[in-house]
Amino acid sequence: MLNGWMEGFQASVDYIEENLTEELDIDEIAKKAALSSFYYQRIFGALCGMTVGEYIRARRMTAAAQELACSDHKVIDIAIKYGYDSPDSFAKAFQRFHGITPAQAREQGAQLRSFAPLHIKVTLEGGSMLDYRIEEKEAFTVVGIKKSFNVENGYREIPKFWDEWMSDMKGLKGMFGVCTDMDGKNFDYWIADLLMPFAEVPEGLCTFQIPAGPWAIFKCVGPLPESMQSVNTKIWSEWLPSLQGYTFAADYSLEAYTPPAENPADTVSYICIPLKKL
């Protein structure tokens, strides 16, 4: 599976490169890798350390700077070519990326930044351990509060959501964090508990039903969020390429939390991904 997975992911990167001046849709990009947009963006972030949107903007800013430096095309034409509605919005984005204005980029000796296209390759390094198990689970329902996030800001904003919840816990223990895809660009994140059979749903809370099936359950040990982020990166960059006999079952995933240990280094949490057999 490794070669096929790499080829699919590289095809998605090549598709971005071939369509930098076109409107890019995350669903179409993800299809090139034979993944849902939800999982594609999670994998991209783990592998590349940035979102798909950040990568596209960096490549467009690189190409735009090269065009400014070696052509006499109008700034407005270059701005529109790379997806900006006005010279002003283009200039602001350009200056954030390059540190100079588009006009200054045309001056002799102007210093510009270049972000090269991604190329997927395998490197053999020291082996690392990743503790996980595949376990069949009965259907269950979680109950909690949810908030919508954009994939561009989710990693920054979700910790703030937890901070808000901790100031007013709304009767929740915070057993789970659940990501549920909405449209490939936005997702709901839940702070939730297990809903017991026949229990009433407290006012102000919502429920999410999860069907029976196999789950890949990854153990994370250590202070949060570092331990979970480290395991998450290994899941998408190491475990996924070698996954055999299973594929993703749905566009959601779950984080499971246990009470904090007295020593943060002993804290245990889990990342859970729904699977289905091929």
Counted beta strands: 9
Structural class: alpha+beta
The CATH level-2 architecture of the largest domain is identified as: Alpha-Beta Barrel
CATH class of the largest domain: Alpha Beta
The gyration radius over C-alpha positions equals 22 Å
Apparent shape:
elongated
The stretches of 5 or more residues where confidence is low (pLDDT under 50) are none
Characterize the biggest β-sheet: 9 strands, antiparallel
User: What's the tally of helices?
Assistant: 9
State the end-to-end distance.
13 Å
Q: How much beta, percentage-wise?
A: 15-25%
Describe this structure in words.
- It is a single chain.
- With 278 residues, the chain is of the alpha+beta class.
- It folds into two domains: 2-105, Homeodomain-like (Arc Repressor Mutant, subunit A), CATH 1.10.10; 132-277, Multidrug-efflux Transporter 1 Regulator Bmrr, Chain A, CATH 3.20.80.10.
- Helix content is 38%, strand content 23%.
- Strands 1, 2, 3, 4, 5, 6, 7, 8 and 9 form a nine-stranded antiparallel beta sheet that branches.
- Strand 3 and strand 4 form a beta hairpin.
- Helix 1 runs antiparallel to helix 2 (26-32), helix 3 packs across helix 9 and helix 5 (75-81) packs across helix 6.
- The protein is elongated, with a radius of gyration of 22 Å.
- It starts with a helix and ends with a strand.
Characteristics:
alpha+beta; 278 residues; Multidrug-efflux Transporter 1 Regulator Bmrr, Chain A; Arc Repressor Mutant, subunit A; 9-stranded antiparallel beta sheet
